[in-house]
Design goal:
With 265 residues, this protein is an alpha/beta fold. The chain contains 8 helices and 7 strands; from the N terminus they run βαβαβαβαβαβαααβ. The longest helix is centred in the middle third of the chain and has 26 residues. Bound molecules: nicotinamide-adenine-dinucleotide. The site of nicotinamide-adenine-dinucleotide has 28 residues, from helix 1 and helix 4.
């Protein structure tokens, strides 16, 4: 058991970006980390190897989180290796951007399949596993779920309606599930990042002009790093936040503060 009082964590979409940073952060705390990936086998094995070298214990497991049988496989393999699961971080997410009138059903559906159904499938499996865990001292949580959502669970986003709607769905998935499982001593929270430097938005932060435009939306005047999110995930998974459930933490440099009103609007 590490100082944060969890043993095993499953992180989905952990071969890159925010998921990778979260997997590495938990690994540094000595946790068992299940590094889920869909296609990027090489990168996922590198993440697992880094964790194994730095005091943690990790395994990389391939699974498309939008597919029920693959999610079952992910959790079965994780349990086979580590016996139980204490923390689930649902992080795997995609964008398929288009203007609304041009958006295909496939673009709409795929985003929901991964960003919302994927979170449902993984969370449902985790809840089943958590119920096998024992409470220690009748106080702390027996399980913990963290949904990586987005500021677009409350900020509308033209040209990205499928993505924003899926993240809005995550908000109510998180709250309703938190209410349902709180009596079982299972906590459910979300982290909603603003703009974080990862693959998902590299066209924006790698381009000087676009990055300048983006900074206008960030009162704190810097684009976030994946570690800004992983630090919050560690806290949310720890007993230090034991009384926190059904809450979203916005990790966004103030993006949700209506930055347009900084000078009288
Ligand atoms: P990323 O593209 O680096 O990470 C997404 C990961 O999900 C990738 O590793 C990808 O392979 C994986 N993935 C996609 N579909 C999958 C599937 N079906 N099954 C399993 N894995 C799958 O981008 P990121 O920014 O690190 O995104 C992580 C999460 O953070 C996403 O949910 C995203 O919506 C959210 N987010 C990111 C930002 C940002 O600015 N980067 C802002 C808000 C929210």
């Amino acid at each position: 058991m590490n100082q944060l009082n969890f043993k095993t964590v499953v992180v989905t979409g952990a071969s890159s970006g925010i998921g990778k940073a979260i997997a590495l952060a938990f690994g540094k705390q000595g946790a068992n980390v299940v590094v889920n990936y869909r296609n990027s086998e090489k990168e996922a094995f590198e993440v697992a190897e880094l964790i194994n070298k730095n005091g943690g214990n990790a395994i990389a497991i391939k699974a498309d989180v939008s597919k029920e049988d693959e999610v079952l496989h992910l959790f079965n393999q994780a349990i086979k290796k580590y016996n139980s699961i204490d923390v689930l971080v649902c992080n795997a997410g995609i964008q398929k951007d288009n203007s609304f009138s041009e958006m295909s059903l496939e673009e709409w559906q795929k985003v929901f399949d991964v960003n919302l159904t994927g979170y449902f499938l993984c969370a449902r499996q985790a809840i089943k596993e958590f119920s096998r865990n024992q409470t220690t001292g009748n106080k702390k949580a027996i399980g913990n779920i963290i949904f990586v959502s987005s500021v677009h669970d409350i900020i509308p986003w033209a040209g990205h309606v499928n993505y924003a709607a899926s993240k809005g769905g995550v908000l109510m998935l998180m709250k309703s599930l938190a209410l349902e499982v709180a009596p079982q001593k299972i906590r459910v929270n979300a982290i909603s990042p603003g703009a974080i430097k990862t693959n998902i938005n590299k066209e924006v932060w790698q381009d000087e002009e676009q990055a300048k435009k983006l900074l206008k939306l960030i009162p704190y005047q810097r684009i976030g790093e994946p570690e800004d999110v992983s630090e919050v995930a560690l806290w949310l998974a720890s007993d230090a936040s034991d009384y926190v459930t059904g809450t979203t933490i916005y990790v966004d440099g103030g993006m949700t503060l209506y930055p347009g009103f900084v000078d009288n609007g």
